[in-house]
Amino acid sequence: SPLANPDRYQTVYARHSGSAAAPTAGLHFTERLIQELSDAGIQMVTVDLTVGLDTFAPITAIDPLEHKIHTEAYSVPETTLESCRQARRVVAVGTTASRALESAASSGQIRGRSNLFITPSYDWKLVDLMVTNFHMPKTSLLLMIESFIGARWRSLYNQAISRQYRFLSFGDAMLLDRHAD
Predict the structure, then answer these.
(1) Where are the beta strands (DSSP E) in 46-145?
(2) Residue 80: CB partners within 8 Å, gap ≥ 6?
(3) CA-to-CA distance for 78 and 9, rounded, in angstroms?
(4) What are the tens digits of pLDDT across the range 48-77?
(5) Other beta carbons less than 10 A from residue 85's beta carbon
(6) Residue 11: beta bridge partners?
(7) Cβ neighbours of residue 94 under 8 Å, at least 6 residues apart?
(8) Phi, psi of 175 (to 5 degrees)
(9) What's the CA angle centered on 76, arms 70 and 44, to 5 degrees?
């Protein structure tokens, strides 16, 4: 079990602990993969974020858009924000990293607590592609995914279920392109 090894519940690039949960999309990245990406000329920049347990809380409001979104601490270095603005395409690793980048781009605040609720009407500013695990029904994360790729998320999830992909923290990941049809 991955939880038998607590170090496995931390990304290889983490600098300090503090999150209530791991940024799970990042668990797929090994030191070798990061080196291969770097060798291929892919620039990697960082954000600092603190994942809260509310990230995974189900939406209980009858109208999902009335859900009170949790806040999460984030910090996006100015160099990261500038690199993203200059990049041909920005690939965010995880929904929380996506939220941090979009919070900084939307608000102009490079650090603080994000209360950005990304729903289908959101106008994405920076993130073009997102690596993310499969999320549970009735969570704000699925609204974010729908905002990112539209109704296509349903067919992706149906395929994942039919092929018995693993969901949640130690589950399988997917690469989403918000510009794809």
Answers:
(1) 48-49, 72-75, 91-93, 111-114, 129-133
(2) 45, 46, 47, 101
(3) 28
(4) 877 766 666 788 888 888 888 888 889 999
(5) 11
(6) none
(7) 23, 24, 25, 26, 130, 131, 132
(8) -110, 120
(9) 120
Gap between the Cα atoms of 101 and 80, Å rounded: 9
The proportion of the chain whose per-residue pLDDT surpasses 70, expressed as a percent, equals 83
Residue type, 68: K
- The burial of 98, by beta-carbon neighbours within 10 Å (0-12 exposed, 13-18 middle, 19 or more buried), is given as buried
* Residue (of 142, 78, 69) closest to 110 by Cα position: 78
Q: Is the pTM of this model over 0.90?
A: no
Phi and psi at residue 5, to the nearest 5°: -120, 95
Tokens of 34: 């990061």
